């Protein structure tokens, strides 16, 4: 077990979790499990490059090569203070303690700062007797400096409450180290994972997709017919990406299966702007499913051109249930459409049902070619579709005999070997007894209504020797769940232990499950997934519970895994949440999973994400811990005022805040708005160099004409030599991270009633104020107010249109 300076796997991060939780009317008991964590509050990892200093931890731990080199440099700086005798006696102690040191910058306020790790008493005594002269070089803790000459006091200060976790006994405690880096499971094989909340306040979120365009945006669809854009920082655009609520057929009834059901982007969306949607409509007295093509707007990359809709395919639905809804592009570039069997119960349509009838499009996997469809037919039939030459069969059919496949996905393949790449996994919802997981193959019959799972449903059809059906890779009985939600094979970068694991769930029972293929036998091993209890998930941002009704799964552009669930399964209830799956046992080495999203040109206001879900089974570190606030539009000026205090009536007035919320669970208190700090009655004295932004017609606080306060008066700045480096100084001074634009030519109006105080300002971007930059004397200029300078600021590197 490795513990390294800045990235440490410390005694304080290893915990037993013998706690159970009442969950979904079923008692889920988390077993006694150990989840070692590093002091950056993430799981340990295997370094990409072999360590040269802390070599005892080169196989697995919390040090990467860069930190190992920093430790080595620190080690030699310390040992330079010693002669040969001191070096001989203390080199080993210094090396061990450096490689075990707690992070100097803990991310959790409840974690005490330790500059020397928790030591076992025998080791501490030996260290003090031999090398106490090294203590000032290892630690700047004032209390350690005070007690360092008293062995008893020092060792008492360094000891831990639980001796199992002190150094070095921790390293030889096999109970704590034998499963280090492995996904933890109990005797029944229930895997312990955690979650991270990503989005909330959604109405039956049933699809989350990415555009594969390098921006790492993700798009979440609600059953009512709205699709929302989320940026990589999880802020949500206030303007929806797509709004077809007037056309979508759905209702507020719990369990209504109609509505907006599927969304996918063309593989070449980055170049052609095409996307496809699957939704329920009412045409006259008929209910239908409709597959349409849209184009993204040429004026806004975050909005669909609603006038561009072209209906690719419509299919009559004889009943209101079993509507299918999955759309996806597979590795072959074709569009796959997964339809339900038409509804009711037992597929009662015709002699053998819709699913076995190859002249019907219901109960099928369809495959069509939508490329180059600007002229001619809206879609073509791929030349190798399996039934293209079979008389009476619809040529669109790729596979048949399905009941109601709900959520399918394409395996990206092993990141290194590409094994498994291109496989299509689906969850097919059962009738009375079984739910199943299938791998879709061309031309195959998946058995419905002859079979349900591995068992016969229609005994006469089941006995037909010509059925030639393919069996599922896994089926489970209704005592485990009654409506499967298909998932994904994990192929992300962040959690290597999950690679190759197919993770899925059940809508009714709320059960999370996994399958792992045995490469030798081809069999799939089942493991249930449980939420880590005790302190397993007790790190910033992680939770260990979720709403019961698991609607869908997703992966982001980087391949990380998510799922969506809701507390009330109604298309009108804003209780839906998007969760990211987190493995607390092991992560990828630092920087291995780094990516740089392409810039996003944003024209809509942003709603900052604020998590609402909470960790359960763990006492909070402070009884007065503030409640989370609802997700709301972010008021940057108000944040600035909160930080610096009231700056007087001359500053721009903060905007009103709009809030999007979701109904809380019964056990959760209602969210309430944050109250500002009490304001004093006396206005503070303004310092020369203070700036403000004014003149934006919409009253936005992150942009405007730059006005500066110098020697008792406000004035403007001329845009001669005005650059983004100048703008960066202004934005940073106002509390923003980035300058998105240096505005010129009085873009935010002319400050005619003020003097021009600065001209020809030249900054390198690091100054504290514009007065620190190069400029002529205050008030000296050769410009007019039509050249007043402005800025657009932000906290994300996205291009903002004014």
Automatic annotation (TrEMBL):
<dbReference type="GO" id="GO:0016020">
    <property type="term" value="C:membrane"/>
</dbReference>
<keyword id="KW-0732">Signal</keyword>
<protein>
    <submittedName>
        <fullName>HHIP like 1</fullName>
    </submittedName>
</protein>
<dbReference type="InterPro" id="IPR011042">
    <property type="entry name" value="6-blade_b-propeller_TolB-like"/>
</dbReference>
<feature type="region of interest" description="Disordered">
    <location>
        <begin position="648"/>
        <end position="684"/>
    </location>
</feature>
<dbReference type="InterPro" id="IPR018143">
    <property type="entry name" value="Folate_rcpt-like"/>
</dbReference>
<comment type="similarity">
    <text>Belongs to the HHIP family.</text>
</comment>
<keyword id="KW-0325">Glycoprotein</keyword>
<dbReference type="Pfam" id="PF03024">
    <property type="entry name" value="Folate_rec"/>
</dbReference>
<dbReference type="GO" id="GO:0005576">
    <property type="term" value="C:extracellular region"/>
</dbReference>
<dbReference type="InterPro" id="IPR036772">
    <property type="entry name" value="SRCR-like_dom_sf"/>
</dbReference>
<keyword id="KW-0964">Secreted</keyword>
<feature type="compositionally biased region" description="Low complexity">
    <location>
        <begin position="653"/>
        <end position="664"/>
    </location>
</feature>
<feature type="domain" description="SRCR">
    <location>
        <begin position="691"/>
        <end position="794"/>
    </location>
</feature>
<dbReference type="InterPro" id="IPR001190">
    <property type="entry name" value="SRCR"/>
</dbReference>
<dbReference type="Pfam" id="PF00530">
    <property type="entry name" value="SRCR"/>
</dbReference>
<dbReference type="InterPro" id="IPR012938">
    <property type="entry name" value="Glc/Sorbosone_DH"/>
</dbReference>
<dbReference type="Pfam" id="PF07995">
    <property type="entry name" value="GSDH"/>
</dbReference>
<feature type="compositionally biased region" description="Basic residues">
    <location>
        <begin position="665"/>
        <end position="677"/>
    </location>
</feature>
<dbReference type="InterPro" id="IPR011041">
    <property type="entry name" value="Quinoprot_gluc/sorb_DH_b-prop"/>
</dbReference>
<keyword id="KW-1015">Disulfide bond</keyword>
<feature type="disulfide bond">
    <location>
        <begin position="763"/>
        <end position="773"/>
    </location>
</feature>
